[in-house]
Design a protein that fits this description.
Rossmann fold, 7 helices, alpha/beta, 33% helix, single chain, 233 residues
């Protein structure tokens, strides 16, 4: 089944999310047996630490599986940006603190992945911005790299973020948290969080963040998963 076909099926299950949230104390949801969706973390060249906070995705997946009806595999894979294997995953996650190099073949591979229905989420773990931003703008040079509006569905898919911005997990340079996107044929295909760093909130076993910050980061992650797996916009 194609990524788009999977999204059509998943929309049916997303309609009952309010029920699961209302009665979440009765029975936790653990996904279906076939685990239709599996996430991959992106490996890249350049010396940046693509492998940082390895528990972030694990913790987010467990949190999401306990709360919403997503058929989500509890494990995730590591896949190189230049590998054809990226086309096996509906969602790619990329993070790090430093340099990232992408050659033309890798860029073309990522572009095909996104054009065929894939979704890329990039979280600046501090120090990645100056390297990743030009790459994100180059994926589809004829498309705009823009900040998401405050009323974007990402901010109310499951949990409400009334300020219309991602949570501020780490101070970094003290700037307000922002979420940027790249669209292709009207669909958001790349999401980039800057001065926010939700993934450090997901890795609550590695970082000493306040409980309310961790919860906000995880809730934002749930919104991200639901949006990436169901939206055509």
């Amino acid at each position: 089944m194609t990524f788009r076909g999977k999204r059509q099926v998943m929309r049916i299950f997303i309609l009952i999310i309010p029920f699961f949230l209302l009665f979440s104390d009765i029975k936790a949801y653990s996904g279906s047996d076939d685990h239709e969706f599996r996430i991959a973390r992106v490996q890249y060249r350049g010396g940046g630490d693509w492998y940082t906070t390895p528990t972030a995705l694990t913790n987010l997946i467990n949190y999401a599986r306990e709360r919403i009806p997503l058929s989500l595999d509890p494990e995730y894979d590591d896949v190189h940006i230049g590998s054809s294997d990226i086309h096996n995953y509906p969602l790619l996650y990329l993070t790090g603190h430093g340099n990232i190099d992408v050659n033309q073949a890798e860029m073309n591979n990522l572009r095909r992945y996104l054009e065929n229905g894939g979704f890329l989420y990039v979280d600046d773990d501090y120090g990645l911005d100056e390297f990743i931003r030009p790459i994100l703008m180059e994926i589809f040079p004829d498309e705009e790299f823009v900040e998401l509006p405050h009323d974007h569905p990402l901010y109310n898919m499951v949990y409400e973020f009334p300020e219309g911005r991602p949570p501020k997990v780490h101070e970094h340079d003290g700037k307000p948290p922002q979420a940027f996107g790249v669209h292709r044929e009207g669909r958001l295909v790349v999401l980039y969080t800057y001065e926010s760093n939700p993934a450090d909130g997901w890795a609550y076993d590695k970082h000493d963040n306040p409980e309310e910050i961790v919860e906000a980061a995880l809730q934002f992650g749930v919104n991200l998963l639901v949006y990436a797996f169901t939206s055509e916009q």
